[in-house]
Amino acid sequence: MPELPEVETVCRGLRRADFEAPVRSVWRSSLDLRIGSYWARVNEGSAKLKGRLPGKISRRGKYILWSFEDPQQGAPLTMVLHLGMSGAVEIRRKGEKKTAHTHLQIIFADDRRVDYVDPRRFGGFRVDQWSAHSKGPLGKLGPEPLSDAFDGAALYGALSRRKVAIRDALLNQSIVAGVGNIYAVEALFVCGIDPQRSANSLTRAQCDLLAKTIRKGLVRAIELGGTTLRDYRGADGEKGKHQQELGVYGREGQSCPRCKASIERVLLGGRSAFFCRACQR
DNA sequence: CTAAATACCTGATGGC
DNA sequence: TGCCATCAGGTATTTA
Q: Of A167, A141, A149, which is closest to residue A215 (Cα–Cα)?
């Protein structure tokens, strides 16, 4: 489901809710979420939030970071939450029923709560000190696409030894953090680059254009509250509006908005890419 | 080191 | 109506 703009929208929704009361309790379903060396300590981790004060909410790539302070001035803990393919955050009040596939509830002393809902359970979370998080997948992320660290030079350098398809290179979170299939495919369409081309075949000028286009695309999608293809919702339950501006994603057989040729779908690494053969080379 | 294949899950959709 | 195959916004691990 969620790529950078959707995750950013969730963060903004959480910030807007302005949680201030301490955590009264935490509930965790008995089902596993993401399995892996970094994610394994999920159950113990969530209990550590009890009694803590909700602090700063930020984002790195597709990861949500939420700091929880110790009222006794101890070290802060950070909850890292990844929404996987189907994860969602829901803000609820006392008495409101949890939806199906809820796996975590953080209940605050003001009777509001934050529910993590994830049917496919590809997402996961972990509560730990920052030093522990930085040794996990967060420490391997590439530059933030909305920061100055991401530009044509950085992209050109990162692609120089890669022979994978450029679409797949853009999905690699160590090259650029937060880009997923929709925004990769759309940026390549805007730039007129065939998604199947090998990453190291792009010119420096094309990398300049691509980096700028990726940034613009993400900023625009954030403005519209993300892309809702099927079930994505922000923390306030709102659908995104960016799907109306998609040029090729999910539009196999429809006509290219630029040249009217038929949009094609190809499989790259098992995942669909959409492109216009006439416009993208 | 790169890169490809596979695994992890549920739900929606389309063909027969 | 049911049954089966295919597909979905992502990442971690295994294999080559």
A: A149
